Amino acid sequence: MIDTLPVIDIASLGSASTLHAIDEACREWGFFHALGHGFDPALSARLLSVARTFFARPAQVKLGLLRDAVNPWGYFDKELTKNRQDWKEIYDLGPPDDPALPPRWPADGRPTGSSPPRMASPSQSAAPQPLLLDLAASR
């Protein structure tokens, strides 16, 4: 059993030791702190700041930005864990597949200093690797 939040350097994502550490962390904790991902620390700090500001908003503001079946970008607070609603709040943001599906923002506007696509672009380059890990783990 792991006693503290696992911290894993994913710079060598394909190595057996890294894959084992990820497997163990996900089985014991359900998540881990990733290092060596190549994201710009300043951009990560900015994203955290924007997230904290967003989630500190009143519930009515966030509920006005609910994602739906037509547009997957937005707020969601009905996540289930073992068929019970948990306390998780989500704000899904990503590049629109269709210009008709813009990200939803509060009436006072989007975060200043970075456009959503620029904030999302570092994660796009890393996205296929976790998918490959998932496929490898399911075999």
Your description of this structure?
Helix content is 39%, strand content 12%. With 139 residues, it is of the alpha+beta class. It folds into two domains: 1-37, no CATH class; 39-126, no CATH class. A two-stranded parallel sheet has the order 1-2. The radius of gyration is 17 Å and the shape is globular. The two termini are 24 Å apart.
Produce a short descriptive summary.
This protein is α+β, with helices and mostly antiparallel strands. Helices cover 39% and strands 12% of the residues. The strands form 3 sheets. It has a two-stranded parallel sheet with strand order 1-2.
| Total individual domains | 2
Instruction: Show unreliable segments.
Output: 113-117, 127-139
Strand sequence of the main sheet, in spatial order? 1-2
Structural class: alpha+beta
Cα end-to-end separation = 24 Å
- Count of helices? 5
Mean pLDDT: 77
Q: Specify Rg, calculated over alpha carbons.
A: 17 Å
Key words describing this protein structure:
139 residues; alpha+beta; 2 domains; two-stranded parallel ribbon; two-stranded antiparallel ribbon; 6 strands; 12% strand; globular; disordered C terminus
Describe the secondary structure blueprint for this structure.
Blueprint: E1 7-9, H1 16-28, E2 33-35, H2 41-55, H3 59-63, E3 74-76, E4 80-81, E5 84-85, E6 90-92, H4 116-126, H5 128-137
Parallel strand pairs: 1-2
Antiparallel strand pairs: 3-6, 4-5
